[in-house]
Amino acid sequence: MSAGRRVAVAAGALALLGVAAGCRREAPPAESVAVVAGREVRWEEFDRYLRRHLGESGASLGSDVLSELFDQFISERLLVRLAVERGLVPRTRGPQPAAERRRAVDRLLASEAVGLAAPSAQQIASYYRAHQEDFRRPERVHLRQILVEDREVAENALALVRGGADFAAVGRRLMDDPELVVDAGDQGELAREDLPPAFTEVIFALEPGQVSEVVQADYGFHLFQVVARLPADVQSVEDARDEVEAALRQEAVDRLLGDLVEEARRRYDVAVHERNLPFNYRGRYLEG
Asked: Which of 18, 66, 97, 144 has fewest C-beta within 10 Å?
């Protein structure tokens, strides 16, 4: 898995965990579920937060997952209050719309991230050494394809290529007729896991420069050409630099976000009314 993919996406990951640990609950109560910096928070606000991030009400999620999500929800409210206090967004009397809360948090982070230094060469090298296995790449092929809607067009294209025409040139010529061509072009480097199973053996049986027979699919007819075969290897630190830098920047932003939440917790009182929550809350804000 690449470094970029390892960056946690909290709401989506928690949703998957919650499905496994899910349980059904009664309809939520109407009472206040928390008071954040002197402002009452009602269940309906958290329910909207869940629907926005998960696309559902959270009725199938377990208490441990909902506790994590409720903590994220409360932390967002604290960060918005800190942004208001710093004059980054205007003060409002009632609850802010979700888009305004996101802008407030973004502005707060942006204002603090100005001083973040770019990762140094030493940090990049150190991260790469510690995560080198994550940059291991499987066997790959550099692939071109022509995908058309008509078998006869595909057979004619194959005849042209086997007669000496350049595969890419044939694809470009066919692209002049968008009525027939779905796709024609360079697909980049692809591993077996990147390909539909129905095509994997056909493509990986080709030698560099070789073109496949016409391969039928539900949505058209393929021609494949393998430009090159690339053995399994480990990306060099130079090849992995962009991913490593992105991972290090994300780590720095995550630390900054955590520091801002802790600062807001010290500034503002939080009281969670766990008895009014329709799940067994055991999150970080029980202690206030």
From this structure: 97
